Amino acid sequence: MSQIPDRKQAYELLTKYTTNTSLIKHALAVESVMIHFAELFDEEDTKKWGVIGLVHDLDYELYPDEHCSRTYEILKKENWPDDYIHAVMSHGFGICTDIEPTEKMEKVLYATDELTGLITAAVLMRPGRCIFDLEVPSVKKKLKQKSFAAGVDREIIKRGAGMLSMDMDELIGETIKGMRKVAQKLELDGSTSALEASGNSSQRSE
What pLDDT is attached to residue 192? Predict the structure, then answer.
């Protein structure tokens, strides 16, 4: 019988399979954005949205070539509900799974996963490394600049916006708001200089 996972269980599972600081920060960013959108859409189960955001890249560090499929195995073994697993799997639609996002929660995850990466990269390029003074036009400019954060799939972001029937300005703006709520955890609040942050990251990855 499946069990409804809580945030503590989800975080413990995340850190069991993920030690890379950047990947953990990404998980925290997506979690916060998912909760923000759940609140924006007046969804009742904000915890569910957050938990799914937190574990969406569960297998990426250890099994990058088997992304999503390993997560499926892990979550099945942990007796997670099928709808949670479906939601997590759907973020890889067209890349590593054929599971299409159908629920609003799944569409938000699909649309914002890559976008949080782009926003993070944009903030890290700013002298103050502060997300609170980042505006939508700056992100849109980076979105068009394909050489910037080249690993970010722009087409996924655009398709995700279409799935949600949101214009790009709104999607970017709300994603920034969601990330601002955990800016300190993400080290994007301007309190850490670029040099210090770089040094800390290097030490943690050694």
Answer: 64
The number of C-alpha atoms within 13 Å of 63 and in the hemisphere containing its C-beta is 14
pLDDT at 191: 86
Residues 6+ apart with CB under 8 A from 133: 126, 190
pLDDT at 203: 36
CA–CA distance, 85 with 71 (Å, rounded to integer): 8
Choosing among 1.10.8, 1.10.510, 1.10.3210, 3.30.420, the CATH entry for 7-185 is 1.10.3210
Beta bridge partners of 97: 93
> Are the beta carbons of 18 and 24 closer than 8 angstroms?
yes
Q: Where are the beta strands (DSSP E) in 100-139?
A: none
Task: Please tell me whether residue 181 adopts helix, strand or coil conformation.
Answer: coil
Which tokens is 200 given?
């800390």
Which residues of the chain are under the pLDDT cut of 50? Answer: 194-195, 197-206
How many Å apart are CA 31 and CA 38, to the nearest integer?
11
Among residues 204, 194, 34, the alpha carbon closest in space to that of 130 is found at 194
How far, CA to CA in Å, does 55 sit from each of 5, 123, 192?
A: 11, 23, 27
Q: Is 100 helix (H, G, I), strand (E, B) or coil?
A: coil
Closest by Cα among 182, 134, 167 to 34: 182
The pLDDT assigned to 111 comes to 97
* Structure token pair of residue 139: 């992100």
